[in-house]
Write a structure and sequence with these properties.
Blueprint: H1 3-29, H2 35-52, H3 62-83, H4 89-116, H5 130-153
Helix pairs in contact: 1-2, 1-4, 1-5, 2-3, 2-4, 3-4, 4-5
């Protein structure tokens, strides 16, 4: 597979993970399980994190660190959901893990948007300018608030 085709596949998987993650987060905030969306979110988020390691790189850098963190969080999240069935502490561990995994995917999406989209790149060519920082802060605050709401509202029966 060419690098361009692999990149397109990786981006498509990432976009599906983001969409599914948004649906799952809305479900968590509404105290709904959404098992199909949850499975899609978790599988595509693992896939986007794992495929990120397959891009050519000269050194282990920040994208790899985010990928490792994401995969560790996802392993714990998947265990809380499927092995422990959301019983006891597994409920909030699952919710927090799902929100963190979604946040990491969104964080990378913002980075990529500012690097690759012609209308955003001039606003933050190095990724250290205020528009980039504001966008990342908004994502962090929105997902932190949604995560707080989800932890408080999501109380499904174990199973």
């Amino acid at each position: 597979m060419s690098t361009a085709a692999f990149t397109q596949l990786h981006v498509l998987i990432s976009l599906v993970a983001l969409l599914a993650g948004a649906v799952v987060l809305a479900g968590l905030c509404a105290a709904k399980r959404l098992p199909g969306w949850t499975a899609l979110f978790l599988v595509t988020t693992v896939a986007t994190s794992a495929t990120g390691f397959l891009f050519h790189s000269l050194a282990f850098g920040p994208p790899h660190v985010v990928g490792v963190i994401s995969l560790v969080v996802l392993a714990i999240t998947i265990a809380a959901r499927y092995q422990f069935g959301l019983a006891g502490k597994a409920r909030w561990i699952y919710v927090v893990g799902a929100v963190i995994a979604f946040y990491l995917n969104a964080f990378v999406a913002v980075v990529q948007a500012f690097q690759k989209l012609a209308f955003l790149h001039p606003l933050a060519p190095t990724g250290s300018e205020p528009p980039f920082a504001i966008a990342q802060a908004l994502v962090l605050v929105l997902l932190a608030v949604a995560g707080f709401v989800a932890v408080r509202k999501f109380h499904p029966p174990a199973g």
